[in-house]
């Protein structure tokens, strides 16, 4: 998250995206607080056990976290793309030692996927 850059047409890139779609859907308090501090909307559904614990506590449980159903539907596209990239053995197992070689492999896999379409 610290190296994230959102390009703009003019000026330096923003470091705060509007929404995070590829967040592994971890609904921990720490992740939600980190995103909230940075002003980023989380598209993480609340698991049923966490919702039940919150409801069990009554008023002290607080209100449920915001959830945008339309943005959640876009996560499917991101997750399918990541799964296609992981079919490439070098990316799935992370054999590459340096980040630059891993990134080059990521670009090659993306080119192969794009050209197959």
Q: What would you note in describing this structure?
A:
The chain is mainly alpha-helical and 117 residues long. It has a domain at 1-69. The chain has helices spanning 29-38, 48-56, 69-86, 89-93, 99-116; strands spanning 19-20, 41-42. It has a two-stranded parallel sheet. Strand 1 (19-20), helix 1 and strand 2 (41-42) form a beta-alpha-beta unit. The longest helix is centred in the middle third of the chain and has 18 residues, at 69-86. It is globular and about 55 Å long. It starts with 18 loop residues before the first strand and ends with a helix. The mean pLDDT is 82.
List the helices and strands and how they pair.
Blueprint: E1 19-20, H1 29-38, E2 41-42, H2 48-56, H3 69-86, H4 89-93, H5 99-116
Parallel strand pairs: 1-2
Low-pLDDT residue spans: none
Structural class: mainly alpha
Radius of gyration: 18 Å
End-to-end C-alpha gap: 30 Å
What portion of the residues fall into strands of 2 or more residues? under 5%
Shape: globular
Characterize the largest beta sheet: strand count, sense, and whether it forms a barrel: 2 strands, parallel
Question: What is the number of helices?
Answer: 5
Largest sheet strand order: 1-2
